[in-house]
Amino acid sequence: MPKIIKAKEPFRFYTRLHLSELTGLKAVNLSQLLGILKEVPGSSIYHHTHRFLQQHQYLSPEPPNDFAYWVSSVLAEDALAEELASIDTIQYSNIRSLREKIIQTIEDYLKEHPMAKLKFANEEEAFYFIKSISFVVPTKYVAHDLKEFISILERVTVDSIYFHIFEARLRLEKQTNDFSLWIETSLGDKPLADRIANIDPYTRTLEDLRRTLIRIIERKVSS
Amino acid sequence: MARIDEYIPIVGESIIDDLRLIAEKLKGKVIQHINSTPVGGGVAEILNCMVPLLKELGVDTRWDVIKGGEQFFSTTKKFHNALHGRRENITDRDFEVFLETSNHNIEEVNTYGDIVFVHDPQPIALIRKKAENKWIWRCHIDVSNPDSKVWSFLRDFVVKYDSAVFSAPGFSQPLPIRQFLISPSVDPLSDKNKELPQADVEAVMKKHGIRKNKPVITQISRFDRLKDPLGVIQTYKLVKKYTDCQLVLAGGTASDDPEGAQVLEEVREAAKGDSDIHILLLPQNDLEINALQRGSTVIMQKSLREGFGLTVSEALWKAKPVVASHVGGIPLQIKHKYSGLLCHSIEGAAFALKQLLNSPEYAKKLGANGKEHIRNNFLITRHLRDYILLFLSLFHPEDIVNL
User: Is a pLDDT exceeding 80 seen at residue B270?
Assistant: First the structure.
């Protein structure tokens, strides 16, 4: 039976619940969308690039962000929608750089396709900018080793997994996700930490992400 | 009345654990709901369900009701219609009546809550009693295109609140206070939504003469022009040319609404001679509505305007494929081609219906997606969570709140 390593520091699971705050800002065409994207709070960029992950957990993870969905379904600019949808969010370690990439993508597209500026959504299909207010709460779950970690991963809400994988890295700017950070610093297992950090969480549903994490760690524990 | 633990088999234990976790953070705070009626209407229905559940979670929640005479309520009804964008003759006298009753309530109602949660325009003027406590105004109405006279009158009160809450993004208004988006919800354990034995569903279908051998398209709605029942019949007729089907239009009686009675008459006239159209008056019969939704092949909600359109959530919760108009809160519930089909016209609705009737596997997939979307976003447990977070937000202005 492989030896289970005790962590230097235990891992406390947190959960993150969110409330949507309305900004009162809306866009009916690409120029307006672009203008507002430049000034809206980062918590709004975060909301529109991550909302789908939590609200549409049952889908294969498409479409990954509200901007792509709106540009495709309302303005019918499918080529731009595809470019926005394929922005590799995992590459960006903070909201600022993600915002710049989205803006650049739209600006480049409008340079090449100036006629796209002439497409307007009707009032009911306008893009309404919303902010995500996060409430971060410690849960009762604490893991002292990988075995306990797996057993908790099976039980916690997807909100908790979401917080440690997405929010910690991008919104709290920790460079990597919380699980990898703990596994590397408290268990000293860099290869496992890297394997988890290399999962692209944006191309999975949250339940699939949970199963993938459990599978990878279980393999490690039983090896 | 269901207890909080009864929701565990539906949403999972961890969701209820999270509710308990955040409810604890409100310890010592008294939440006081204030509205205009203890029974009847959507707001009272929500509060009757939410208040006991919040209490069970340990949130000290109370509920008070303002008083008002016939004149006051007929004025607030006019306000309600005007906020929905309907043309109403609002006079200076109406504003006087509103303020007279409001002043009386300001004297009579004790606003003792640490958080005072005011629902809709009727009690809005109570904000004049604001002291050190926190105040929220909850707007349950579609105010995307309000009558400017009424809105500017009410706005003077709204801006004095700490926060406002709307049901859909398009309802928000330029305001100097924080505005939150909180959608309504369905209660999966209520008579309208709970699981029913197949035999009960079939008995209700049979009772109303709905045959099993043809697909059934159903719209559940009041007989109201804004629900476009005549448009639904036209849609059905376009579909019927290619697919033999039945149409069910079911809703409450229109006895207290002269226009409703007229609409019902027009609907009956339009349906004349077609035994496959079933027009059913089902006042307050939640179990039968539930059975009709479950017994239908496709559900429609072809409204011209809609507040939130909870009938869509009800249908999706039953895993039904839905064709609905792109209005009000409906696009929040349906992502086109993912969890239902959205339409903008009679022809568009007919095309969507034909697609679903001819592709049962596609229809099934949309219904299944829809059900999960409702489970994740529009059940009462999410509503409870949002309200608790809303209360907490009053003490935390930041975007990331560490509790």
Answer: yes
pTM score of the predicted model: 0.88
Q: How far apart are CA B310 and CA B378, in angstroms?
A: 9
Element counts in chain A: helices (H) and strands (E) = 10, 2
Q: Quote the pLDDT of residue B230.
A: 97
Is the dihedral angle over the CA atoms B139, B144, B146, B152 positive or is it negative?
positive
| pLDDT band (50, 70, 90) for residue B224 | confident
Confidence of residue A93 (pLDDT cuts 50, 70, 90): confident
Cβ–Cβ gap A22/B403 under 8 Å: no
* A41: nearest CA partner in chain B: B399
* A125·B15 Cβ contact <8 A: no
User: Shortest CB distance from B401 goes to which of A20, A133, A139?
Assistant: A133
Let me know if the fold of B4-185+379-393 is the same as that of B198-377: yes
- In the stretch 41-70 of chain A, residues with CB closer than 8 A to chain B read 41-43, 54-59, 69
Report the C-alpha gap between B370 and B322 in whole angstroms: 9
Helix (H, G, I), strand (E, B) or coil at A132: strand
More confident residue, B155 or A73: B155
Instruction: Indicate if the pLDDT at residue B85 is higher than 60.
Output: yes
Residue B385 reports pLDDT greater than 50: yes
Domain boundaries, chain B: 4-185+379-393, 198-377
Instruction: Give the mean model confidence (pLDDT) for residues B396-402.
Output: 93
Q: Give the whole-number percent of chain B exceeding pLDDT 90.
A: 77
A152 and A37 Cβ atoms separated by less than 8 Å: no
CATH of span B4-185+379-393: 3.40.50.2000
CATH topology of domain B198-377: Rossmann fold (3.40.50)
A22 vs B401: CB contact, 8 Å cut-off?
Answer: no
For chain B, say whether A125 makes contact (Cβ under 8 Å): yes
Which residue is closest to A172 within chain B, CA to CA? B400
Q: Is residue A61 predicted with pLDDT exceeding 70?
A: no
Is pLDDT at A193 greater than 60 in this prediction?
yes
At A72, which amino acid appears? Answer: S
Q: Give how far Cα B99 sits from Cα of B75, B102, B131, B148, Å.
A: 11, 5, 20, 18
Residues 80-109 of A with CB under 8 A from B: none
| Probe site for chain A from B8, B11, B13, B14 (most A CB atoms < 10 A) | B14
Do B140 and B167 contact (CB within 8 A), yes or no? yes
- Work out the average pLDDT over B305-331: 92
Give the start-to-end residue ranges of the domains of chain A. 11-16+135-222, 18-131
Q: In the β-sheet with B246-251, what is the strand arrangement from edge to edge?
A: B277-281, B246-251, B216-220, B298-301, B322-325, B341-343
Residue among B360, B358, B363, B361 at smallest CA distance from B242: B358
Choose the closest CB to A58 out of B15, B175, B369. Answer: B369
